[in-house]
Amino acid sequence: MSEPTPARGSGSVRAVRAIIAGHGDFAAGLVSAVQQITGRGDVFRAVSARDLSAADLDALIGRTIDETGVKVVFTDLQAGSCTMASRRVLRDRPDVLLVAGANLPMLLDFAFADALPPTDAARHALERGRAAITSLGGGAKK
Amino acid sequence: MTVVLNRIDDRLIHGQVVVGWGQPLDIRFIVLVDDEVARSEWEQELYRMGTPPEMDVYFHSVADAVRALPRYREDERAGLLLTGSVDAMLQLVKDAGVREVNVGGIHHRADRRQRLRYVFLSREEEQVLRDMAQLGATITAQDVPGTRPVELHELLESEASVQ
Q: Strand B113-116 relative to strand B119-121: parallel, antiparallel, unpaired?
């Protein structure tokens, strides 16, 4: 389902610049986290694949892109149904960029990059999200 | 090893298949049986790009799959057979000896009634599942390994509140 983005205490409402689509509450959770950290959760529209057929998910993502006019779709999993649906939908929308494997650092970077065109902002955010993955501790590898 | 899961899922290859079942069963190949996908290079590429590199995907029409399945059953790796419809799986039960069927996801459509959170069936589809059982197949609904398997008689008697 497509869920409205939270705008609690955010003052002015920004235009939606990207869709986040994923399993379960993945998208709503990330939007909530971006909102809590930056107050900019309203740049995203959350979409969930929960209990939708492939055809219904294709239609939902296509409709959400058209309603919002976004040029960027972030998804959770490369093999996931939202990525599959987005790739089908984007076949007829070649100016829209898909980024699969989204994480919170990536979306925080995107939320602040409103001076850049959305697709440039997403490419920058992708690099930031990739670089933000790290590990600490855990002892020596066994 | 052999084909260890025969699944009906109208989303075909997606997270529940590749990760949810793929990891615990150590699935190394998927046999995707769908006439439409078998005709479309673009769709095949879409599904191929959605699977991890250690997992092969083979595409067949239903008629082709009947001939090809014996070969996949002799594969030393663990495999997963996947159809997008009950009709395609019925053919494989009839003509290719499939004896265990996992109903993994059949989603909302106007002519379907909700049976489980992830299973909606039309009257015709219910009959197809009964036909499979008549032919000796064991039918179980289960979307991911951690959920309770639901047997056919319970599935057809259940309403959406059953999970």
A: antiparallel
Name the residue range of residue B69's domain.
Answer: 3-157
Substitution target in B14, B46, B49, B120 with the highest count of A β-carbons within 10 Å is B14
When divided into structural domains, chain B yields a total of 1
What is the pTM assigned to this prediction?
0.83
Alpha-carbon distance of B15 to A82, in angstroms, equals 9
Enumerate residues 6+ apart whose C-beta is below 8 A from B41: none
Task: List beta partners, residue B120.
Answer: B114
pLDDT of residue B93: 98
Q: Is the pLDDT confidence value at A119 over 90?
A: yes
Residue A97, domain extent = 2-131
Q: What is the ipTM of this complex?
A: 0.75
| Residue of A26, A84, A91 for testing the chain B interface, max B β-carbons within 10 Å | A84
What pLDDT does B163 receive? 46
